[in-house]
Amino acid sequence: MDIPLFCAPIGSEPVDMKLSRRDFLATSCAGALSLSCTTPSTGVRKPLFKISLAQWSLNHRFFKREEPHLDNLDFAKVARGFGIEAIEYVNQFFFR
Fold first, then answer.
1. Between the CA of residue 74 and those of 32, 88, 95, what are the distances in Å?
2. Is residue 29 a part of any domain in this protein?
3. pLDDT tens digits, one per residue of 37-96
4. How many CB atoms are closer than 10 A to CB 58?
5. Looking at the domain assignment, is residue 47 inside a domain?
6. What's the rounded Cα separation, in Å, for the pair 64 and 59?
7. Residue 11: which region, alpha, beta or left (left: phi > 0; alpha: psi -120 to 50)?
8. 41 inside domain
9. Alpha carbons 56 and 30: distance in angstroms, whole number
10. Measuring CA to CA, which residue among 69, 58, 67 is closest to residue 92?
11. Structure pTM?
């Protein structure tokens, strides 16, 4: 099965070119492979995203329903213990 491909410079008549499925897959795979090879080969990759920990994730400890109980000032230490560098505070825990 051929996939119709229309290529033409702006302002000219389109040229009808046929691209077979095999050629399309070969070109796509070659492009994907070339993109995957552009990362450094040091073996250590930098993470795409950094995650944060919301204070609500530990709400049972802040409401003293679960041991060990936590205080607002201890939340940053706990998050660092999980290896998380960013935290999100919840104002509900400050107004009890």
1. 46, 13, 17
2. yes
3. 655 566 778 878 889 999 999 999 988 898 989 988 899 999 999 999 899 998 888 876
4. 18
5. no
6. 8
7. left
8. no
9. 46
10. 58
11. 0.48
